[in-house]
Every structure is written in structure tokens, then in C-alpha cells.
Amino acid sequence: MLKRLFGVMIWVGWCSMGYSETSLLKKVDEYRTFGKNFSFDMRITAFKNDRLTDQYQVKGYVTVDRYAKTLLYFLDPPLVKDRKMFIEDSTIWMAFPRTQNTIRLSPIQTILGEASAGDVANLSFSATYESKSVSKDTKDGITYLKMVLEPLPDKQQSAYGRVLLWVNPQTHQPVLAQFYTTPAGQQKLVKTVGYVETKPTAFGVIISKMVITNEITPDKRKTILEYLNFKRHSLPVAYFQKDYLQRFQINE
User: Fold this and answer.
1) What CATH number is attached to the domain comprising 126?
2) pLDDT tens digits for 142-171?
3) What is the b/e burial string over 66-77, where b = at least 16 CB atoms within 10 angstroms of the residue's CB?
4) How many structural domains comprise the chain?
5) By CB neighbour count within 10 A (0-12 exposed, 13-18 middle, 19+ buried), where does 241 fall?
6) pTM for this prediction
7) CA–CA gap between residue 33 and residue 36 (Å, rounded)
8) What pLDDT, in 10s, does the model give residues 160-215?
9) 252 within domain boundaries
């Protein structure tokens, strides 16, 4: 009874705050998008059938103009070393060593373990989706806000036709997301992302650890993304463009 009453109080409290569904989604994005001019290290660990299969190290640099721009430099293992990625809004470009070609990627393309380009870039929900509904939902005895997201009118080609997102109603922190496709009009769960840890930075509290689970294959594929060592950087703004990607070198 007390849990039910507490859940009702949370729901009424959120409604009384006057947030629109759009502004709520932007609040959620504050945990997933980076502040101005800082760098981070990323560790990506992949598992299959609960056994470690791969581990990767990536260095990232972020700047913000009208929207976030991100440069990623792949450090380890040797198979991916010296690959580079540039993310501008929801557009993603990849450069490979010993080639002059720069390839455009879809945000859902898997690049490391089960992590897609969009996962690694930590793209915001509101850049691609709009909220269709918000309701209260209880998981493991805890009441959350459950948001149903669908692509914006100009993002209808997004591979995810629907995202179910569970949010802490008091802090607006994302807790869990389920990503669905809509082949032949029938929804299919593709992956689940758990936002399991946060970390305070000079730019606010952000999601520092995500667990991505492949919901299609039977071999329990899972990838953990961890963001580490947040620092300010002073890279020139001119570095953050597709045409500079081939020349970009890591700056410690």
C-alpha cells in the first residue's frame, strides 16, 4: 500500500512540475550528452555466453557549438588501433588507417562488440525521437516514468521504430531503454540498454556506465561501455569536422 501511494505521489509530483514530454526528454538527455570542450577515456568490454571476448580502449574529445561534436580515436587492441570517428549531431564518419577513404556510418551500425556507433557517441534521444506518451510503471517495486518514443517526422528512416524508456521521476535519469524495429509492421526487440552508473563532472552528472544486451541472438551477447578520466581539452574548433578526420592525431 505504501509503495503504491509513493508511486502515485511521484506521478502527481511530476505532473505538477509542468514539464512537457519534450522538455522531459531533454532533461533525460542532460545525462547522456557531454558538456563543452572536454575529453574522456572509454573502455568497451564485450561478452558472449558470459565469457569475455574483447576489450577496447578509445579516447574521445567533445566540443559544443550549436550541438555536440565528438572525435574518437581508437587505441587498443591492434585490430582497431588508429581508427578515427567524427560525430556531428546524428551524422557519423569513420576513417581507417592506411586508407584515404572516410565512410559514413548509420548510428545503429555495430562497431565494437554490441555497441553501435550511436551508443559510443552517446547520441541524444531528442535528436531523433519524440515522446508519444508518458505513464508510470513499476519495476522491482520501484516506480518510474515510462516514455514511449518514436522517430521525429524527419527521422522516419531510423532503424528503431520505437524506444521504450524508463526514467527516474525525481532526477530524470534514464534507467533502462528497449529498442525496437518495425519490420513488416511488426515490432521486434533488438537490444536493451541499462544505464547503470553515473559520475559527477565539471559539466554535471552524466551516465558513466552502460550495459548493452543483444536481444536477438541466443548466445547472451553483452557489451559494457565505461566513460573514464574526464578532463578539459583545448583542441581547436577547426579539428571538429569531417574534412580534418584523416589528419587528426591523439592529443594527450
Assistant:
1) 2.50.20.10
2) 999 999 999 888 877 776 889 999 999 999
3) eebbbbbbbbee
4) 1
5) middle
6) 0.83
7) 10
8) 889 999 999 999 999 999 999 875 567 889 899 999 999 988 778 889 999 999 99
9) no
